[in-house]
Predict the 3D structure of the following.
Amino acid sequence: MAHAPNTLNLVADIGGTNTRVALARGKMLLPETVTKYKNTAHSSLQDVLKKFIQEQGGVDTSAACIAIAGPVRNGQASMTNLDWEIDLETLADASKAENTAILNDLQAQGHALGHLPPESETQIIHGTSIEKETTRMMVGLGTGFNIAPVFETPNGRFIPPSESGHISLPINTEMDRKLSAHFDAQFGFPTIEHALSGNGLENLYNFHCCGVEGAAHKNAATIVADCEAGIDPAATRAVRHFVQILGSVCGDLALVQLPFSGIYLVGGVSRAIAPHLSEFGFLDAFRAKGRFEDFMNSFSVAAISDDFAALTGCAAYLESSAHA
Amino acid sequence: MAHAPNTLNLVADIGGTNTRVALARGKMLLPETVTKYKNTAHSSLQDVLKKFIQEQGGVDTSAACIAIAGPVRNGQASMTNLDWEIDLETLADASKAENTAILNDLQAQGHALGHLPPESETQIIHGTSIEKETTRMMVGLGTGFNIAPVFETPNGRFIPPSESGHISLPINTEMDRKLSAHFDAQFGFPTIEHALSGNGLENLYNFHCCGVEGAAHKNAATIVADCEAGIDPAATRAVRHFVQILGSVCGDLALVQLPFSGIYLVGGVSRAIAPHLSEFGFLDAFRAKGRFEDFMNSFSVAAISDDFAALTGCAAYLESSAHA
């Protein structure tokens, strides 16, 4: 056996395409153990975990925690486009670990805060708030949109779930009013996620192409690339509009959650958009809250680039619950 | 001395007009001690508390907690229209109590949940969620608008602060779009509180009077009364619009906070509006969240009528922190 029994924990991050699995000693990921598996090549969570355990010399882990890009309720998780059974019983059966936990991936990334390498964090706005250990807020921009507030309570970190991607899209400008009518016709109810996600950027691009002869559908990566190359005015308009809606939404949710210790953007779409936030007016949109404009200066905003943050978060969560 | 020393706690609720003060034994308010003082007749918090303590025979309390209709940060509170110094030091000095706490009044009312007389709660929507001890959400409708999520963590109840009244007003209908333009011209940035508060109802009434010859300004109580009497169509339109915006806002904030154990409406305006929620379409507006329409059936909504809920909450908070 390559590892001594019951000294390590198993952590996993199940995304839309890949599942990443690793071993952790306390809060520390063992980087040499991080392994990526294509979901389509496996029939179940058991299948993936058993393969990983075998590859690690039949490791006997003490606890196991997985992060899921989807809602988790009562120890059960569900993901669109993946029919794996994901619940505590399946996890315990596959991992043979004594303690198990399932977290939403944004909650997991929230548990990673404070345990990530400093270079994985890029500051976008320096807020004036000097409270260093109060509330933070994760904002996840990827296949979907969601947030997770990260509360530091007298008894430790607490990160409740949320479905914030499905609330009303904020309408602030004449352009937003047109977008709202456009989404209304297309989706019935215009939500944040209709604009702020991979698909959302594509929706915005289609909207900004309206009336342009011969405009073709483009995927999110191409829209960002064409904006950066300066070769498609509709792509530039779409990215600018995305950034301004993101500023407004982050500002609204900051007033709801009061993250005086900072807002953290995570996820694939956030990594692609982060370099364009300042050029396209993120800060102005974030601060445009009427008489609360000055108050908005309290909040810091940073982007997190660590691809393994959810794994680190799972490790930190197991460690903190073991000591609770 | 009328009360034995160090057996009772002092609790107070400082509202915009009156301050209520009472004694509590553990979580139980002593109803015969509840006393109401007009703020304008007193120059400071010390002034009010010293008078109360004297009236109670010079009671020597063990702990003191006050609830404030305003933001609380780092043990300091501030209220519009009241220049009293309200901080932990002043409270300790005035009460001579060993332990002190200051809560926002919505947070205090959240701590009262589970300790109020059953008759103070009127069910408005029966949700399908069967989770009885998860998250609840307080929605306060009075001079202002705010929410407080009430989380049940493994280590006890946790109620973070919020400034949710100042986020973007949701825009769902053609009428909302007109209202948004109207508020935009008047206030610069249309927020929830511009519609959902005492002043908010007056703003809505003015909007629905547009173009009506000789329309006079009416206060919130008159608008509700005239709607109930059926003598002013603009008042009826204003109350209906208020109820529909409230439904939409409660639905959005429910998706953010996931209160599977219920939503609780509190505050003076909520007590006045609660009887009209079903007649004016609260439920439809609450559920109108596109593909999340079915999911919205999870949530229960109730109105709380207890005028002393914040006092009970202060007592419960002191009791729970004494045992933490």
